[in-house]
Amino acid sequence: MLLAAMLLTMSGLRAQQQITPNDATFSQYQYPFPVHYFNLTLQGNALRMAYMDIPGRQSNGQTVVLLHGKNFGGAYWDSTATALSAQGFRVIVPDQVGFGKSDKPAHLQFSLHLLAENTHRLLDSLGIQKAVVLGHSMGGMLAMRFAIQYPGTVTKLVLEDPIGLEDWKLKVPYQDVDKWYTAELKQNYEKIKKYQLESYFHGQWKPAYDKWAALQASQTLSPDYPKVAWNSALCYDMLFTQPVIYEIEKIQAPTLLIIGSLDRTAIGKDRVTPEVKATMGNYPELGKAAASRIPRCRLELLEGVGHAPHMEVFDQFIQLVSGFLKN
């Protein structure tokens, strides 16, 4: 066990030495599709919100909006966006403010309501009045808030292992933003890969995942990293304190809920006793409970899959999504 840990540390150090530093907005990293910018003024901050706009081949006249998770920007939707575009969908992939190529404000009160409003304003600017909304992890939590906040905009809703299917505040002691920030400043490639390995991929690492761990780690090597860490801390506080679970009965759109059977993601479970930890993040049960409360919801439980089906079992994931969107 000790030898395995030492080998993992050594390989992590070697990998980190090969990573090129990236600034707060990934200026040195090329996204899979052209990036555009939408200007916002939020709480006195003049900000740019990055997004990709991929036209559908032989357009079917429909739009899909892809909402990323907390540990990624929109780039990790590359395969999903390509597949949906090939099926005729126009695909909009925003980087939320504080993530990816979007600006990282020094002073901003983050809320899911605000991120939903930013996304809606972006769609308005593009002349998009109706859209399918697909969100993963934090993006799934945001997608639920968006669907509740803008029911007339969402034609269909796809939730891929959304976080926030339980209220962590009921079990986990509060941790202020400064403590989140201190923890985020200590991030590096080794810690990021370890977290993704355990939380996303249930101990099964594939070489294809390396680029995403390396991309996230690349910002930790930049002088800009405190900006990124501060925004990450603000978002952790947002996710912990703003559960959507109490309002999901208000979701009106037909909904596909995709759940990995091995997913056990829960914010703060490292700050509770083993007994309490064992009661958190049971996604199969949380998924069943959520599906029973969302009025028009179909639950798909993927056996042997973790927190990121679109990365782990893409063919299975896109088949489910495509079938749901055709019906």
UniProtKB/TrEMBL annotation:
Keyword Coiled coil: no
A Pfam family it matches: Abhydrolase_1
Alphabetical list of InterPro entries matching this protein: AB_hydrolase_1, AB_hydrolase_fold, AB_hydrolase_sf, Epox_hydrolase-like
One function term, GO molecular function aspect: monoacylglycerol lipase activity
GO cellular component terms attached to this protein's record: membrane
Domain AB hydrolase-1: 63-205
GO BP terms: acylglycerol catabolic process
Name assigned to this protein: Alpha/beta hydrolase
Organism: Chitinophaga parva
